[in-house]
Specification:
Blueprint lengths: L2 E7 L2 E7 L8 E7 L2 E10 L10 E7 L20 H14 L10 E10 L7 H14 L9 E8 L2 E4 L3 H6 L2 E7 L4 E8 L4 H29 L13 H19 L4 H19 L7 H22 L15 E5 L7 E7 L2 E7 L8 E5 L2 E5 L14
Helix pairs in contact: 1-2, 2-4, 5-6, 5-7, 6-7
């Protein structure tokens, strides 16, 4: 059954369609605004044994044919995701992930493909809206739907899903995701926006997306699949109580070790002691025992901060770790520094170039030149 419905988001008409494309997916929605079109699909599969996280993957892909272009360079087949596609994938992931049930470990894959781009209507928020609709009408358990839109301000007026030209004129660009009851994600940038104006923008965005959320609910009623039953795993209360009795004092002592490496090493030792202590009593529930310990550690740290007004290393809220800054630490680079705060360190280098070193970005909306490039690396040795 093909369902195609229109909804007004601000002064733009957004069309949601399901049942015509990608029929084998658990859920698929075609989202159109103007001549920008995004296909969003979701598929699910059984999880791998032993994992303790939600294996959700989100891929947002912009195909160059969507703007009538051929990829530049020697290789004409489109390859890995570009930086802004990865960032948009994360933009979709953030508001969607928390709405899956606690303890859900089945694989979920969301793929958003830009099929057409009119150089006027942004496709990232269309992909976010489509992801919500696709998951909601699928058989995958989920506590949605959500809606997503961009908010700008042009000539003093708030605008929902502004065009690219309007974004260039706007002093505020926010991407807001919300349920019918609350805002669940905000991302964006503003030019010295007052706190009152920011709050006004947030509520404007939440209200503007409500018609789309209502339409997604209607689509589920008309074409949604029956959700797969899922009962979150419940850990026996006696395990939590036993672990707390055995390890609470040890965890409290470990929380007050000032040296981070020693503190985390002590936590690992206590966790091993807990597992060994209860392996005979609950041989088939050691996983629950370890989870109970992690919960105890979290609760203890939180209580120390809220009740005793102390951080996990014993500092109060006003005490700053010792800071030192060394400059010129590398002889042949243009600029270098070693910044140290407590046990956290960062080596930063700067390289100056000419106009020929600018980065050329080939986007669906045209070419852009990037003169400032910030590269952030988090090597594994930094946490031992």
């Amino acid at each position: 059954m093909i369902i195609r419905e229109d909804v007004k988001v601000g002064d733009k008409t957004v069309t949601l369609e399901t049942g015509r494309i990608a029929k084998q997916a658990a859920g698929s929605v075609l989202v159109t605004c103007g001549e920008s079109v995004v296909l969003v699909t979701v598929c699910g599969a059984d999880g791998r044994p032993g994992i303790d996280f939600l294996p959700l993957s989100v891929d947002y892909m912009e195909k160059t044919y969507a703007a009538g272009k051929i990829p530049g360079g020697f290789f004409k087949r489109e390859g890995r995701l570009r930086n802004h596609e990865i960032l948009t994938s994360r933009l979709i992931d953030r508001p969607c992930r928390p709405l899956f049930p606690d303890g859900y470990r089945n694989e979920v894959q969301i793929v958003a493909t830009v099929l057409s781009h009119d150089q006027e209507n942004s496709t990232d928020v269309l992909a976010l809206l489509g992801a919500s609709a696709a998951v909601h009408i699928s058989d995958i358990p989920w506590a949605g739907p959500i809606g997503g839109l961009r908010v700008g301000r042009v000539n003093g007026e708030w605008v929902a899903n502004p065009t690219l030209a309007e974004i260039a004129e706007s002093d505020c660009e926010l991407i807001i995701a919300a349920t019918k009851d609350a805002i669940v994600m905000v991302e964006g940038e503003c030019e010295e926006l007052s706190e009152d104006d920011l709050v006004e923008a947030l509520w404007f965005g939440k209200d503007a997306i409500q018609p789309a959320i209502g339409l997604i609910e209607e689509m589920r009623s008309a074409a949604g699949k029956e959700k797969v039953p899922f009962e979150p795993p419940v850990r026996p209360e006696e395990i939590d109580a036993a672990v707390k009795d055995f390890a609470l004092d040890k965890v409290k002592d470990a929380c007050n070790l000032a040296v981070k490496h020693e503190r985390y090493g002590r936590f690992k030792e206590i966790k091993k002691e807990v597992a060994k202590h209860f392996e005979e009593k609950w041989p088939d529930q050691i996983g629950d025992v370890k989870k109970a310990f992690e919960q105890l550690k979290y609760d203890t740290m939180r209580a120390q901060v809220l009740d005793e007004k102390r951080r996990v290393d014993g500092r109060d809220f006003k005490t700053v770790r010792p800071i030192s800054i060394e400059v010129g630490i590398l002889p042949r680079v243009h600029g270098s520094t070693l910044f140290t705060r407590g046990e956290t360190q960062s080596i930063v280098t700067t390289t100056l170039g000419t106009a020929s070193d600018e980065q050329k970005l080939d986007l669906l909306t045209g070419f852009e030149w990037n003169r400032f490039m910030l590269h952030y690396n988090f090597p594994p040795y930094s946490v031992g």
